[in-house]
Amino acid sequence: MIAYLRGKLVKAAEDHVWIDCAGVAYEVNVHQRFLAQLPPHGTELTVYTYYQALENEVRLYGFLSTSEQSLFKKIITVSGFGAKAAMSILSVMNPPDFVRAVISGDEKRLTAVPGIGKKTAQRLVFELKDRLGTAGASISSDAVTAAGASSLAEDLLDALEALGYGRSEVFGTVAQVLAESGENASVENALRQVLKRMAR
């Protein structure tokens, strides 16, 4: 299994990206929220992946975080849900929102996803509620962490924007700094590291 790819973004299309890893370009299927957050071409980034081998095709699916990757694996275990449906969910809902909707039985929130009707939403709640609330608690934990990281990234991007940097200009550096800092990241420390790297 390919757990993640780290390389340069060389192409972005309607539903996939190409990541150049040491001269080999991998085509990775991604969701719309992923595409909306892409850095400029040529930027190095990490894409968490799921390798799917079917009878007549092989595909790589890409995610913004390990929590999305884990959630994707949970969703495709639900009867009637394949990779396409799981990516449709992730296109409009981040892990914290999805976990909250399933655990609280919020069918209205789930049916806001294109292609998911009332019965399908009920199936998601029925099959995933206990797993996300107990056995799947790690996803909830990861989701909270991911939400915090997302908030930190947003604060950091706002600070850099105030200093005159364009978001697309610094996105890749911000992502790299936060990935390396882990749980110890703070806006002040991360800002210092980003500015240091941008000055090189």
Keywords summarizing the entry:
200 residues, alpha+beta
Task: Please describe what this structure looks like.
The chain is of the alpha+beta class and 200 residues long. It is built from nine helices and five strands. The chain has helices at residues 32-36, 66-75, 83-92, 95-104, 107-110, 118-135, 137-162, 167-181, 187-198; strands at 4-12, 16-21, 24-29, 44-53, 58-63. Strands 3-2-1-4-5 form a five-stranded antiparallel beta sheet. A hairpin with a 3-residue loop joins strand 1 (4-12) and strand 2 (16-21). The protein is globular and about 55 Å long. It starts with a strand and ends with a helix. Mean pLDDT is 83; it is low at 134-148.
Briefly say what this structure is.
The chain is an alpha+beta fold and 200 residues long.
Walk me through the topology:
Layout (H helix, E strand, L loop, with lengths): L3 E9 L3 E6 L2 E6 L2 H5 L7 E10 L4 E6 L2 H10 L7 H10 L2 H10 L2 H4 L7 H18 L1 H26 L4 H15 L5 H12 L2
Antiparallel strand pairs: 1-2, 1-4, 2-3, 4-5
Helix pairs in contact: 2-7, 4-6, 6-7, 7-8, 7-9, 8-9
Content-based structural category = alpha+beta
Cα distance spanning the termini: 36 Å
Output the number of helix runs: 9
Largest sheet entry = 5 strands, antiparallel
Residue share in helices? 55-70%
**Rg of Cα set:** 18 Å
